[in-house]
Structures are given as C-alpha cells and as structure tokens.
Amino acid sequence: MKKTKILRIVNRFNLGGITYNVTYLSKYLPEYYETKLIGGPEEKFEQNSLYIPQQVGLEPEIIFEMRRSIHPLQDFIAYRRIRQIIKEFKPDIVHTHASKAGFIGRLAAIHSGVPVIVHTFHGHVFNGYFSILKTTIFKWIERHLAKKTSMILAISQLQKIDLSKIHKICVADKIKVIPLGFDLEKFAENQLNKRATFRSTHQLRPNELAIGIIGRLAPIKNHFMFLNSIIKLKQSTDIPFKALIIGDGEMRESLENYLNQRHISFNQPNSYIQFVGWVKEVDIGLAGLDLVCLTSNNEGTPVSLIEAQAAGKYIITTNVGGVQDILEESAGKLVEPGDEDMFALQLLEAVTNFKVYQNKALIGQKQVIKKFSYDRLCHDMDELYKQLLSKAVD
User: Fold this and answer.
1) Which CATH number among 3.20.20.150, 3.20.20.140, 3.30.720.200, 3.40.50.2000 corresponds to the domain 185-371?
2) pTM score
3) Which residues of 155-178 are buried (b: 16+ CB within 10 A; e: fewer)?
4) Given CA atoms 161, 162, 163, 165 in this order, what sign does their dihedral have?
5) With 70 as the cut, is the pLDDT of residue 123 above it?
6) DSSP 3-state assignment of 59?
C-alpha cells in the first residue's frame, strides 16, 4: 500500500508545546502515513527541544535559515530549501505549524503544487507583538495565504472566533478546531517522588508553598505583573512561600534589574523569588509546585496550563487567547489582563485557602488528561487528512 506523505514544518525546535505536538503527529499517526519533520533552530535564550522527537526515534531536518525574526535573505534561502525538500520528498500534504513556518512553508507548497496544504495557528501575532502597520501587513499576508490553504486549524473555539470574526483571516467554514494533544498521563504519575526531587533540588522547605510561572521570559508574557503580584502577596500574608520563575529569555535581565531597583533579593537561599531557568522534565517541575500562574497579555492555547491541570494544580491566569477553552471551572481563576490588584487578590485567596483550592484542582484532572491526549489528536488529524485528500482527488 502506497503511503500518504506528509511534510510537517514547525517554526523552530525550542522547548514548548508545539514541539511535543509535531512530534506526536509525526510519530503516532496510523502506519499508512509517512512524515518528514523539518523546522528552524532555537533562538538565543531558548532551550533546544530536539531531544523530544529524538526520544521517540525521529530525526528532524533543521532549516538553519528559518528564524523567528524577519530577515528577507534568510527567509528566501529557507523558502528555496523547503521547495527543494518538497521536490525530493513529494509530499501529498504540507502541514505548517505557527507563523513563520506557515508563511514560508505554505508559500513553498503553493508554488510547488502540493495538493493539500494545512496550517495550524498555535497562537497568532495580531495582538501585542508589533506596530499597527506591521500587524496590518501580517493580516494581509495571512488572508492571502488562507485562500490557497486547504484548511486552517485553530486549537480552541475562541481562537476560531478570533481568526474568523475579529481578524477576518478567512471565513469560519474554512477553520476547523482541533485541540492540542500531549502525553499527559505522566503528569499524574509518581507525583510524591517527583515532588521530593524537585523541592530538594530547589531547596524548598516542607511548609513552603511553591508558586510557579512557566514559559519564555518575553514581553508578551508580562512577568512584571507576576513579580508585582508576588510582592503584594508577600506584603499581605505570613504564609511561607517561594515564587519560582521557570524559563528564560530576553526579559530576564530587565526583570532582575527591576527587583534590584526595589531592593528585593532573589536567587539567594532565603529569597522568596527564584529564577529557575528551563526545566526539561516539566512533569517533575509541576509535581513540586503548589500553584501555577500565567500573566500573559496574549496567548494561543498555553500548554503550561494544560499540563498544570493534568498535574492537579490550581491556576491563577489572565483571561487571554484560548485560556477559557482549556481551563476547567474548578481548576482556576481568570483575571483580566493587566489587572495586577485582582491577580494579587486571587493569589492571596488561593494561598490562604490552599487545601480547599488544591482539592478543587483535582476534580477535572482526569477529564483534562483525556481531552488533550495525543491519541485523540492523532485520530482527529487522521480524519481531517482523509477528508482533504478525498476532496483533492475529486
């Protein structure tokens, strides 16, 4: 039986949810698919994530010219390289993931006459990233590419509404919602041992609550709001806690300078704020935390919150992107972006009544693990591919 060939293109192999998703789709689709996975390298301050596909026997091809920032010469070279890969691999489907891969990859697929082209918006850059002029140009590009794309995928219902109704990238009928999928069972397994390992590594005392935020230290993530809320929490309670900033990025120096200017110590044995850096084994990190925060001004579907719920952790988060679609009612509180006072208040409430909120977080744990499993993701994608291939033949 002739296999259906898929060329899967991702922005870059940096540590995050997209790498896990493209890995599961490349590895665990039915055997009648053959997938080639390609993408750009991680950026400065990012953790390389090639170990994720390599752990399941995949060896992605790196397009070194495909970078996050706009660079006409490098972008053109990346486009030419992808066209050459298409010529040699002869895919039936090109499936791109996220903005840069979606632009260069779809353009190469369109110009190469690939029969089925699919693009997944894992997030978008239409809010909070660029100037009005740049955003307008990016929207125009996305609308043009959408006309030549067989199907646009959103990862939440709210994102579909955002793309079709607010930003008018394409009509709603051309957007299908397929939620993300992960190996989430590990987040609920062996938690006591994992918790002991993480808390010992980071010198957390048994009576200290661990409040974590996970992700790139980038402007859009608004870690200043997290720091300000933590400082207010420290002023409002005697309950011992530590705030752990898990991740790294371009904003780290600015965040550290901000704390220094306020004469607040960090990364010292007795400091209540710690910069942890990247944690590869996120299941161990989440096992060691008690509460999880997200303060972003914009998001697609934040993977850290899906994983936190799978680990049974209570969440305080800003109400952005697809957060509403993934947050179980009992598992957390939503705060409007930028509302530091309300965020700090909700955090204080969760810390003060921790046992109550901890039990609430466990209610929807099994449902989240099932809803966002990679088995479900692969099944949904298989059904979509078959439909699109059938239409392409007709």
Assistant:
1) 3.40.50.2000
2) 0.84
3) bbebbbebbbeebebbeeeebbbb
4) positive
5) no
6) coil
